[in-house]
Amino acid sequence: MATVVFDSIFKSFGSTKVLHGISLDIANGEFMVLVGPSGCGKSTLLRMLAGLEDIGGGTIAIDGRVVNDLDSKDRDIAMVFQSYALYPHMTVGENMGFSLRLRNDERKRIEDRVAHAARILNLEPYLKRYPRELSGGQRQRVAMGRAIVRDPKVFLFDEPLSNLDAKLRVAMRAEIKALHQRLKTTTVYVTHDQVEAMTMADRIAVMNDGRIEQLGRPLELYDRPANLFVAQFIGSPAMNVFDGTYRNGAVEALGARWPCSAKAHEGQPVKYGIRPVHFDFGSGVEAEVVVVEPMGAETELVVKIGGQSLTVATHGRSPAAPGDRISLAPNAKHAHLFDAASGARL
Amino acid sequence: MTNRKLLSEAKLWLVAIPVLLWTLIPIYHIFLFSISTKDSAFSGRLWPDHPTLHNFVTVFKQEHFYLHHFWNQIWNSLWIAVAAGAITLAIATCAAFSISRLKAKGGRTVMNAALFTYFIPAAFLAVPMYKAMGTYGLLNNRWSLVLAMVTLAAPYAIWVLKQASDKLPWELDEAARIDGATPLQLFRLVYLPLMVPSLVAIFTYALLLTWNEYLYAFLLLSHENTIPLAVGLGHFLASDDSPWEILMATALIYGLPPAAIYYAFRRYMVGGLTAGAVKS
Amino acid sequence: MTTWQVWGALLLAPYVLVFFVFVLYPVSYGLWLARNPESYRTLFEDPIFFTTVVNTIFFLLVAVNLKFVLALYLSGFFVHDRRWIRWLSVIFILPWAMPAIPTIFSIRFMFNPEWGVVNQTIFRLTGLDGPNWLTNPDLAMAMAMGVHIWKALPFWTLILMAGRLAIPKELYEAASVDGATAWQKFKYVTWPSLRTLYITSTLLSLIWTLGDFNSVYLLTGGQPADKTHVLATLGIRYIRLDQLDHAMATIVVALPFVLPLVYFMMRRLSGDEQKTSQ
Ligand SMILES: Nc1ncnc2c1ncn2[C@@H]1O[C@H](COP(=O)(O)OP(=O)(O)OP(=O)(O)O)[C@@H](O)[C@H]1O
Ligand SMILES: [Mg+2]
Hints:
The complex is a heterotrimer of chains A (346), B (280) and C (278). Chain A is built from eight helices and 19 strands. Chain A has 346 residues and is α+β, with helices and mostly antiparallel strands. In chain A, the strands form four sheets. A six-stranded mixed beta sheet of chain A has the order 6-7-8-3-9-10, sandwiched between helices. A five-stranded antiparallel beta sheet of chain A has the order 13-12-11-14-19. In chain A, strands 2-1-4-5 form a four-stranded antiparallel beta sheet, with helices on one face. By secondary structure, chain B is mainly α. Chain B folds into two domains: 3-60, no CATH class; 69-238, Orthogonal Bundle (MetI-like fold). Helices cover 74% and strands 0% of the residues of chain B. In chain B, helix 1 crosses helix 11, helix 2 crosses helix 11 (244-264) and helix 3 (70-101) runs parallel beside helix 6 (142-167). With 278 residues, chain C is mainly alpha-helical. Chain C is built from 13 helices and no strands. In chain C, helix 6 packs across helix 11 (214-220). Chains B and C meet through helix 1, helix 3, helix 4, helix 5 and helix 6 of B and helix 1, helix 4, helix 5, helix 6 and helix 7 of C. The site of magnesium ion (MG) has 3 residues of chain A, from loops.
């Protein structure tokens, strides 16, 4: 177990700057998720922590010790790759014990530790099999087993679930989470899937274009996104955002008045954001239903207001049909205001 | 079968038969000679009146002037081919690993140097090589042929092995590094086991190339005790009244093993073939 | 340098050594030997040299092109998905899989004007003497080309076959649906996909055919009267005569032709490499 500290990390590949000064403190035993759109630099950051990529600038410390110049093998970390990277010519047991074998551990000790990890991950029946004889989910577990066996200071995951089908992904999500709760090892987990981030993380760092946009607990990010980017990235279905002008404690936009609790200057151009679930039906803004997407437990409506498409989510079934005109009441408490120019939260 | 099907089938046979004859006649001709007696060899028949294995006995007992060193020569051929195959394999594997997996500095330049050697016609390189071997004092030493063949075989070997290496997932190396592997452990425990099919192909390639080589062998080696069988066979041409039936028996003994090895490892070879292009 | 870089250099070193000792030094030294204009004067005055150059040009133009047209045609035959054709292709590889000496000697004996099986058969069937296959220089050159083709054809057929097999079947199916004839399918589907491979292979084969020593030497030995040499055998002939500067000069004369081709091929393979590494 250990803390991890990134201190103003820079990185460029040739002339393209990829990371612009990232600082991030990860606490002992914390499950930290780095999330962001494709190409934002989260893998690069993780790989620098793993020692697979040179550190362009700044320092990385594990457990208080700067590791910039340490080889991967001396950093006491374990990593789970998106492609699992299992050694095809070794059995499951050999795969899991490989790191110990390289350290010249005793046979007995290796076997014990592999058996222990296999028990935790329900891999006992498969120890003699080769990776090609396993299903995707099982391979995923072997990759985790390989990490567990070493009992490292830090676990690193780079999109470990994106090669699995949707159902397995949900199951493995829970398994990784349970594993973390059991082992309490500091974990850095990279994903571009905000649902994964929300469900697994102790804290999330939302990255965009080589910067951390916001750092916080999952629900903090959901309830109080620091800027437009986070607002639109976190939450599914995504938040509705449109331009408006702040007047008299509300926002005028799309030919209607939208209530809000945040304050802005009179006449200030703002972006108004509201999540699809934060509408009530009743008196308010007039809308025309365009599409109805029933999903069983809830229904999503795509509606048109003043020429703009918005998403509205309701619990249960909705009687609405395309072409219907309905009236929506936005929940002022849950409305978000952002500065139109900077995108910062107001 | 419909008429049209019959017609297209007939068209295929119309190609197949000439191809078969074209391919097999010279080879059958060797076989025919090798089982014929001296008199019947030139009768122009398709099958000898009295097929005999006598020629092979003559060869194995070294009972002819040209064959006094037969066993010695076949041993030389084998020794040189295996040595060249093994050294090529070792050098090329190290180089390919270094270029492809360790991304060694200058790897690209070395690859280009190898490709350059690969494309230069072998008979052209033979002239300066002959001179250099003389300078090194290696002429008439079996090692000269071994080293010359390593020089000729290594470029293609490196190229093929590099192509194959590049296909291995990069994450395996990264996983091994994180697992604590040193470069040599990565090479030994991860890289080599995964490359086995390509290694077999490359060893076979270098082995056959060397066994089959004539030009370099006859340039670099001329002493009776050092020459391989290929050069020994060439000596039969020294006079016009050579014992052809015995020559052909020897040639068959010399020519069949590489063909057999080729077929045994064809599965490996064909993959390598289409990956690049083997020197013909 | 990290340990990884150190090992990278160490593992590369053996080949670099081989290259320096057995390629770079010999070639540089050879070129230095060939610096004397006098060697070229005597070379150009040697009538054998002129014949050889003409032979070589013919050999390259005729043998390589004939070989590739045949290979192109036969690759189309061998891609047919029949069990017996697969077996035939296995046999077809034999000339390439076997060493050169036995088969070329065999051909040499078959075509011996006096007691070779070919002329004997001709005599038995017609009562006439067959041609002097190997003692008439023009015929002998043609025979050498034949031998070269016999030996190298399987390999290039295999390469072009691989090229053909890489063409998606759907293209042919679509063409069939559109009512294309066999020739139109070749012209609009096969050839456009195969052209690059065909041209690259031809160029590569040009270089290598230039270095084909066996087909000529083992068949004719340059005889009669040194009239059937090509550059490859002529260079070796000068070595045997202990005229190393002439041997090198022979090769240097061909370099203006060889080096651009080598450069082109290296560019191509390096280019391919960049594509695959991305
Ligand atoms: N080896 C490299 N050479 C050059 N550019 C690179 C290299 N690795 C990454 N990049 C660039 O750096 C940027 C960040 O890459 P990174 O892999 O960290 O993204 P990511 O956030 O993990 O994205 P994804 O979700 O797609 O995995 C990208 O623009 C990428 O093109
Ligand atoms: Mg990534």
